[in-house]
Amino acid sequence: LYIIDNFPSRFNKNFLNERKDTLNIEKSIYFISQGHTKIYGEKTNEKLINFCVESSSLFSNFQCLLHPTETIKKNNYPANLKDKIIQGPHNFNRESENIKIYVSFCSTAIIDIMLNNHLVIGVDIKPPTSLLAFNYFKPELSVKSPKELHLLVHKIKNDREYLINLLIKQKKYLTELIGQ
What we know:
- The chain is α/β, with parallel strands linked by helices.
- It has eight helices and six strands.
- It has helices spanning 2-5, 7-10, 15-19, 42-58, 109-115, 131-137, 146-158, 160-178, and strands at residues 25-32, 62-65, 85-86, 99-104, 119-123, 142-143.
- The protein has a six-stranded parallel sheet with strand order 3-2-1-4-5-6, with helices on both faces.
C-alpha cells in the first residue's frame, strides 16, 4: 500500500517529455531473484535460476539482486555466481540520471522499479501454480530465453525510439496496474 499511496508524488508523468533527448541506459543488467519462492512451484524456481545463470554468461555486467529472505550465504544460486550476487535491501529509486534495466519473473518490486522510470523486462515462464499472482504481477514486456534477453537489451541500448516506445507502453501498463 505504501507504493500505491505514494504513487502521485513519486511517479513523474512528464519524465519522457522532459528527458526524451537525454535518456541514457546504465550498463548493468539487474535480475530480481525469485529462486527462493515456493508459491510458483519447484520447477519454476529451477527455470528461474537457470535463466539467471545463463543470462549472467551473456552479460559481463549482470547482477542478481537477492530477495530480502535470501542471503549471500543462503541462496539457491551456484557458487560461480557469487561475484554477481548482491544482498539487499535494494534501492530501486532513481539514483542517477541513467535508466536501469531490471529483469523480473513476477514481483511486486516491479511497481517500485517502474515508478522510478526504470525499464522492466519479464521472464516468460508460465508457472503451474499461483496463476492469479503471476497474471497480476508479470511484466508486460517479456522474453522466453536469455538469448532473447540479450538481443532485446542490445536493441534497447542502440535504438532510442524503441526505448522511448517501451517506456511509454510501460507507463501505460503501470497506470492500469495500480489504478491511477
